[in-house]
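Support request, please re-run this one:
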Amino acid sequence: MWHRLRNWFYSLRSYTALRPDLAMRRRVVRSLQRRTSLSPQEWFHTYGKSLGIAEAVVNFAAHQLEQYSGLPFGKLLPGDRLEADLHWTQVCWFDWELSFYEDVQQTFEVFLEGDLEELLEGTLGNFLVWLTKQVPSELLQADPLPKDLPKDSPQNPPQNPPKNPPQNLKPKHLKLRSPS
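Re-run finished. Output below.
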């Protein structure tokens, strides 16, 4: 009996240590309230295209980064510093990096490994430019998102995995590179 109670107590303490800081998340969301919310396509045309960020990466980021952090991607700017402005590691679950690696592998067939700590000191724009460079250009253009479908419709899921990736490409195993 005491063993179960002690395990429950330790689980509760671990959960508190590993969960997002909800007060910080609310503060960051509140600071973003005055910004205009853009759809992934609008975000790409407003910011991504000029920075060299692939549309598939913007679509991926709009869904996945919002899921990890609870922050509305459409209100984020490329110049937002992930740690200093968005408090990224505080607003995300402790294991968001593992989820990110898995999602990148499933979506883009690219295996990433290493630590994202150095990238998190930079901006959202730098992070997305870096991610674009990690994905082979053939996969970024394999299945463009239809422009005329409404956001998050059943035919236009937020995540944009290639339906028919080129057969000659195998998942690449890459070490994390510092943003240029």
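Residues 142 and 162 are 6 Å apart (CA to CA). Residues 21-175 form one domain.
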